[in-house]
Amino acid sequence: MIALPSPDRSVLARRHTVIADLQRLIGPAAVIVEPVRLKAYETDAFTAYKRLPLAVCLPNSTDQVSALLRYCSRHGIRVVPRAAGTSLSGGALPLEDAVVIGVSRLNRILEVSVEDRLIRVEAGVTNLAVTRAVEGEGFFYAPDPSSQIACMIAGNIAMNAGGAHCLKYGVTANNLLGVTLVAPDGEVVKLGGGHLDTPGYDWLGLICGSEGQLGIITEATLRILRAGEGARAMLVGFRATDVAAAAVADIIGSGIIPVALEFMDKPCIRACEDFAHAGYPLDAEALLIIEVEGDKSEQDALLARLETICRRHDPLTVRIARTAEESAAIWKGRKGAFGAVGRISPDYLCMDGTIPPAQLPEAMRRIEALSREYGLMVANVFHAGDGNLHPLILFDANDQESFARAEALGADILRLCIELGGCLTGEHGVGIEKRDLMPAQFSAADLAQQARVKRAFDPAWLLNPHKVFPPEFAKAA
Amino acid sequence: MGFSTLIAPSDETALSRAIAEAHAAGAPLAIRGNGTKDGLGRPVQAASVLTTRGLVGITLHSPSELVLAARAGTPVAEIEAALSAKGQHLIAEPPDLSALTGPGEGPQTIGGIVSCNLSGPRRIALGAMRDHVLGVRAVNGAGDVIRSGGRVLKNVTGLDLAKLLVGSRGTLAVLSEITLKVLPRPERTATVMLRGLDPARGIAALSAGLGSPYGVTGAAHLPPEAAAQAGFGERAATVLRLEDFADFIPRRAAALAAALAEFGPADILDEATSLALWRTVRDAVPLRVGEGEAVWRVSVRPSRGARLAAKVAEDVPARFMFDWGGGLVWVVGPATELAHRVVTEAVCAEHGTFWLVRAPPALRAAVPGLPEEPPALAALTRRVKEAFDPKGILNPGRIFAGV
């Protein structure tokens, strides 16, 4: 288990005063204090850790967020920002002595401009609602994390969310034009806007992926992209994982950048097939789902080229969709992958390390060996083109020993990713989950520099504390 | 430049030592590669100049992983040649602005391009230099070697200091090595060209093209004088680029031209003409800047580009060229404080931003080279500068006076 601090007793002793003050600032209806209602906020999608917060505030404007942060900073009260609570790394995990500030009531779409190819939204709008707001015009918002039905733009920005299509269209940082940020002292800062590059420091780049360490986002301007003429998928089953990995390298090396290039190993194929009956090849050790875009003739040409490349690797199965329906059938299993694995084992940890794609065969071999060593099943489903692995470690949450082993196995997998030239997290964030592994990736000088930047925004270290930074670096000014 | 000493470390250890010594002495350093971008910012007052020109060489190129790393002083041209040999290229198409800035003392370096976050026409479709920096190694103002990011395509581990350093023009840390995402070079390039449109109509055509599903990767409008400079005769040229596999291009070009029919008949330019055209647009050559002229690189919402230009032209004699679908407005005008004020006010009215990229040193010292930050943001700028460079020795005053 990752150590969480004991709460500040002086803050707990002031609980009633603090709550009365918060209610005065944003109205009693927007402050949640009853334990039974606070329960809904005790964790996020990293459910192994739970803490009831002091209170939850649901402001409905940037001014209210500003007033809350101004109050908390003046009174030395810790704050945990929250969007939809879908973090897989515990990024929104509350603390007993902290006020949760949630942006879920900031949910208005403010402007759509097809002419300028942007949308301006409040930060509690969901990822999918952004695409829904522009798809009638033939546009879409590119980052598409698996949680897109629920997850909110504030959380997407905090974690620099990716998705299945970022090999071609980039992650959140590449699709963000502007934000309204409320700094920890309550100051409201507007960064970027409706234009592209801003000379001077790249504040947007720094804020994106900063995991609620530097401020709370209340509004965002996002780039929207015109959808391609069409898309079609193919599925290829291989006899071995390293053969599939070699095919991935050949595809990228050929000059074709598919919009999606997804990989699944045998345990995952089986789970998905049992769940979705998508017709996945059960004899394959690994399969790739490859999607291309263009008009019909371009799709045909690209799929034919990809087939030629894959055929060089002696595949067991090659299935090329002829229609949108056949594409959807290919995707059906993949889209339900996490749910499917959840049917085999109700509890799993989802890792998120990234490796250089050339190391895929080595990574697969060693993850398999670690899985045997720890006696826990690991299913792999991930974005192969960019090397972002998602090993799912299956365990039994009712058995503390099994959970401890799963955590240790996860840490070993992440250390392996670093050893192979990669990193701890490609899209889920560090949060609480990977906090103590940070020194495996960064030197003391690297972390000290990051901590100085954090203190430039948050000198008292009140915002989302005990996350991202290992305790020895997380010190107030 | 009248610097008394030149420090040219040949590796990162020597770079770190040189900065640590300057830190101990509290002695400011002017940071540069080969000096091609000396004119892009406020003049720096420093007794010593520290150059990264000795840190050279490509340290990694893995075509199938779409990644290349090079030391900061490596010439951009050398990187482009190495990529080209493997059928790849730099995605953001960084410009060579020597037509505006003069030649410098040697070829522009990757450290310079990244430190200025300069991108070419492809920025509108595939992102800026900053979008493709996967990781950096750098030395901060205390002499510490720091790393951020890495060599993988997806990485959200810790604060993204790499993005902060890109575009910081040597004021936070000195880059020693940069890792970039690269892409396959398209097999074929073509251009759809419309003629005789005014800027507002031209930008509307660019917007329609960028809103089409045909994959436009360049969208520029050249008013008559710029079109003439680019070799197309004295009529405005509105140009949209397509890049992809050779067998896809003829159909796409025809479809795009048809989609833009309301803007008049289109010419389709072949590959050689297209490559030359986009190179000259990238490098801002059609501006044909002369003595006594300043250049502002303005970034606004595309739909406001034409209005901004009209507003500037009301008050000072000015010429323009529009890239990024109208969102990048190159403004050429007299190098005077009056012209600077006119541009600043027009940009402010349209909620955009600007960068004074060419002006005599006296004007660059006298006026802000980019919009002044509101107080809350200016305070963050100062604190973040201090977090990297506690004694303020790295390129002091380069971006903002006193920072």
Mean pLDDT of chain A: 95
As laid out across the biggest beta sheet of chain A, the strand order is 15-12-14-13-17-18-16
Integer-rounded radius of gyration of chain B: 21 Å
Mean pLDDT of chain B: 97
Tell me what the CATH architecture of the largest domain in chain B is: 2-Layer Sandwich
pLDDT < 50 stretches of chain A: none
Characterise the protein shown here.
Chain A has 477 residues and is α+β, with helices and mostly antiparallel strands. Among the domains of chain A are: 9-105, Uridine Diphospho-n-acetylenolpyruvylglucosamine Reductase, domain 2, CATH 3.30.43.10; 231-338, Alpha-Beta Plaits; 345-436, Alpha-Beta Plaits. Helix content of chain A is 36%, strand content 19%. Chain A has helices at 9-13, 15-26, 35-38, 62-74, 127-134, 153-159, 166-169, 203-207, 241-253, 266-276, 296-311, 324-335, 337-344, 360-374, 400-419, 438-441, 444-457; strands at 31-32, 55-57, 78-82, 98-102, 109-113, 118-122, 139-140, 176-182, 188-192, 216-223, 225-226, 231-238, 260-265, 286-293, 317-320, 347-350, 378-383, 391-395. In chain A, the strands form four sheets. Chain A has a seven-stranded antiparallel beta sheet, with helices on both faces. A five-stranded antiparallel beta sheet of chain A has the order 5-6-10-8-9. Chain A has a four-stranded mixed beta sheet with strand order 1-2-4-3. In chain A, a hairpin with a 5-residue loop joins β8 and β9. The radius of gyration of chain A is 23 Å and the shape is globular. Chain A starts with 8 loop residues before the first helix and ends in a 20-residue tail after the last helix. The model of chain A has no long low-confidence stretch (mean pLDDT 95). In chain B, the strands form four sheets. In chain B, strands 4, 5, 6, 7, 8 and 9 form a six-stranded antiparallel beta sheet that branches. In chain B, strands 11-12-10-13 form a four-stranded antiparallel beta sheet, sandwiched between helices. Chain B has 15 helices and 17 strands. Chain B is globular and about 65 Å long. Chain B has helices spanning 12-25, 76-85, 98-101, 110-116, 123-126, 129-132, 161-165, 199-210, 224-229, 249-259, 271-282, 305-315, 337-349, 361-366, 375-388, and strands at residues 5-7, 29-32, 48-51, 58-62, 67-71, 88-90, 133-140, 145-149, 173-184, 188-195, 216-222, 237-244, 266-269, 293-299, 319-323, 328-334, 353-358. Chain B has three domains: 1-185 and 372-403, Uridine Diphospho-n-acetylenolpyruvylglucosamine Reductase, domain 3 (2-Layer Sandwich); 188-282, Alpha-Beta Plaits; 289-366, Alpha-Beta Plaits, CATH 3.30.70. In chain B, α12 packs antiparallel against α13 (337-349). With 403 residues, chain B is α+β, with helices and mostly antiparallel strands. Helices cover 33% and strands 25% of the residues of chain B. The mean pLDDT of chain B is 97. Chains A and B meet through β9, α8, α9, α11 and α17 of A and β8, α7, β17 and α15 of B.
